[in-house]
Amino acid sequence: MSGADLLPATVLKRKAVVYVRQSTQSQVMTNLESQRRQYDLVQVARERGFVDVEVIDDDLGRSASGTVARPGFDRLVAWLCAGKVGAVLCFDASRLARNGRDWHHLLELCGLVEARVIDLDGVYNPCRPNDRLLLGMKGSISEFELGVLRARMLDAVRSKARRGELRLSVPFGYIWHREAGLGFDPDIRLQKVIQLIFARFRELGSARQVLLSMTADQIHFPRPSDAGRMTNFTWVPIRYRNVIAALKNPFYAGVYVYGKSERRTSIIEGRARRSYGHGKPIGTWEVMIKDHHEGYISWDEYERNQEQLALNNYGRRGGVKSGRGGKALLAGMLTCGRCGRRLSVAYTGNPQRLPVYRCDQPNLMMGLPRCMTFGGPRVDAAVAHDLLRAVEPIAIEAAFEAERMHRERQQDQKHIHDLELQQARYEASLAERRYAACDPENRLIAAQLEKNWETALRRIRDMEARPPVERPSDIEVDPGAFANLAANLAAAWNAPDVTMRARQHLLRTLVADIIVDVDDAVREVVLTIHWRGGRHSELRVRKPRSGEHGCATSEDALAVMRRMAGRWSDEHIAASLNRMGMPTGHGKTWTALRVSAVRHVRGIHAYRSAEKDSKWLTMTEAARSLGVTNHRIRHLIKTGVLPAEQVVPGAPYQIRAADLASMPVQSAVTRKGRPCRADDAGTLPMFTDT
User: Fold this and answer.
1) Residues 6 or more apart from 238 whose CB is under 8 A from it?
2) Domain shared by 580 and 619, yes or no
3) Can you tell me the mean pLDDT for 501-506?
4) Longest dimension (CA), the chain
5) pLDDT greater than 70 at residue 154
6) Is 473 among the residues known to form the active site?
7) Highest-confidence range of 278-282, 412-416, 565-569, by mean pLDDT?
8) Which long-range contacts (CB under 8 A, 24 or more apart) does 418-426 make?
9) Do 378 and 482 belong together in one domain?
């Protein structure tokens, strides 16, 4: 040891700190020689004359780039500030810091307390300008070296990725073959499950509905069981994250992608913090190679899926949200003809909770008046009627196409179930062979193998006890037998078993979009229907006036009442309306009281004599006109002198006003003295005239 390397006694009285660090966990596990050489610095400190030597190895596996918290380095800085450290020993400058801020801060603290920095090359005193300059150069070189190494590695990775040869972590359903490159996973069951996800989304148009559908069918999906190393899997019930990850991953479309996510750096408590996995738009990906490998879907279908998912989330302009049920048939399909935004749905009224369509985005975002608001039931009924008219010519073909799709879905479900059962039987056979190959005396292993075998057998039993998939019928059906299907299409549409979601899907199959506006001059909702195929049609629906409820009696029922009133009683009218299947405005059956109430509101008179048109009179009005009593008029009617009509026995008499001026009625009214009775020619008089 030279004289320049001798340390003063004041420094030797303090403790010497040996700082041990490696950048990654893999270095901690594999680079054992580097660890050993850093721990050997303890002997170097004792040779320098230090008695109290302490090792700080809390930062093993942590980077010194400044973005990762290092509790060991923070403890070292705290001891330096307290004046307890006489020397800091490290393997080289890169062990202490890889960025200039931490390195120069450490040197400044060492200079303030006159602590030394010792490495394999010698002893440095930060109080001396030459030593401080040399230490600063070592820190700068270490920082520059880190940048060069990182740049070289990233350039090599990007270069390999541009050729599509960088073996990235691939999603479920793909594996890297040693010779052939990226290809399908040989597990047929896994392939069928992934294909089923895309088929269900193609049918339902919603990721959540795909999850609910596959959960109802008891479909499972693999999950890594080896802490993310993607070598061992366990099959668990499918989750939403599995569905949405498959739908959004471009690898399933046969596209090799690198750089589709980015890292972001933020300053938290004075230290840089990096977060990863932030997705980037499609056009900003660093590498995108189409037709790189075989895909489960095409690129065009992938783009349609992304557009549909975006529309489901936000209801953007230019597309239609998937049907999700509810009470509104046109939810997510109406576009405002004034501002171009999607109309939202609100439910008002109690207890029916009827849907109301309104364009309230200008009101919510800018405080402007709403573009339009109108009730949903009338508009939904009008569009449904127009849809049924358009579907009638192809109703039979649509029914057979739906049957074919249903059979394909049953076959896919049965195939997945068979593959799952086949795999369960293989695992049970493997567990049996392992148990048979085990030494029976080794109970510690044999007990666990026996337990695994029992679990596999129990899984087979549960799968065999699962209700079987409905077997499709093998009967061939003649399309001519359904010639009357189009006539019954309206009944099928209104059947109670048909859900609103099914109606919405049928509507979205035939209709691309609907532009809506309100003609305030005539109070009509104007609908411009854009049919798939390029045809357009216009539909006008009367908008109810303020205070007009939506439970009014239909015009067909009112027409029947007008035709039957005056000839039939309210009981007969109610029975006829019920037989014709015409409910009340509230959807109830008719009674005589309800018919009477509707007639009173609508001004439909039950008898012609109540119309007050001077052609027909009631018995009271006829008596007042002739100046006699009601009893006299009733007697004239019973004797046949005065013609009268009754709708039913017991109903009021209807007397024609012109009949009151007839000769028999006038002579009967003017007769005096004798009782007003009819003369019978066959009756002999009691007293003669002589």
Assistant:
1) 193, 211, 214, 215, 219, 220, 221
2) no
3) 78
4) 185
5) yes
6) no
7) 278-282
8) 419/188, 419/189, 419/192, 420/189, 420/220, 420/235, 420/463, 421/460, 421/463, 421/464, 422/189, 423/189, 424/456, 424/459, 424/460, 424/463, 425/460
9) yes
- In the chain, the N- to C-terminal Cα span, in Å, equals 183
Cα 665 to Cα 656: distance, rounded to the nearest angstrom: 12
CA angle 641, 645, 649 (to 5 degrees): 115
DSSP 645: B
Q: What is the SS3 assignment for 572-638?
A: HHHHHHHHCCCCCCCCCCCCHHHHHHHHHHHCCCCCHHHHCCCCEECHHHHHHHHCCCHHHHHHHHH
In this structure, what token pair is assigned to residue 109?
A: 């603290």
* Residue 265 forms part of a structural domain: no
Residue 349's domain spans which residues? 327-549
Angle between helices 100-113 and 71-82 (to 10 degrees): 30
Instruction: Point out the catalytic residue in the list 2, 23, 34, 554.
Output: 23
Report the alpha-carbon angle 329-333-334, nearest 5. 100
Mean per-residue pLDDT over the chain, rounded: 80
What residues does 268 pair with on adjacent strands? Answer: 271
**Is residue 299 packed enough to be buried (19+ CB in 10 Å), middle (13-18) or exposed (0-12)?**
middle
Residue 482: pLDDT band with limits 50, 70, 90 = very low
**In this prediction, what percent of the chain has a pLDDT beyond 90?**
6
DSSP assignment, residue 658?
G
Q: Specify whether the CB–CB gap between 651 and 607 falls below 8 A.
A: yes
Instruction: Name the nearest CA neighbour of 423 among 388, 459, 396.
Output: 459
DSSP string, 239-283: -HHHHHHHHH-GGGGT-EEE--EEEEEEEETTEEEEEEEEE--GG
Query: Could you tell me whether strands 354-358 and 344-348 are parallel, antiparallel, or unpaired per DSSP bridges?
Result: antiparallel
Based on the fold, state whether residues 582 and 640 are members of the same structural domain. Answer: no
User: By three-state DSSP, how is residue 10 classified?
Assistant: helix
Q: What pLDDT is recorded for position 401?
A: 62
For the segment 223-259, what is each residue's pLDDT rounded down to a tens digit? 887 655 666 778 889 999 999 999 999 999 999 999 8
Q: Residue 367: left (phi > 0), alpha (psi -120 to 50), or beta?
A: left
Judged by DSSP in three states, 480 sits in helix
User: Do 397 and 538 share a structural domain?
Assistant: yes
Task: Map tokens 């109606």 to a residue.
Answer: 503
Do 537 and 493 belong together in one domain?
yes
User: Collapsing DSSP states into helix, strand and coil, what is residue 284?
Assistant: helix
Q: How many residues does the chain have?
A: 690
Is the domain of 477 the same as that of 583? no
Query: Do residue 512 and residue 387 come from a single domain?
Result: yes
60, part of any domain: yes
Cβ contact 416:221 at 8 Å: no
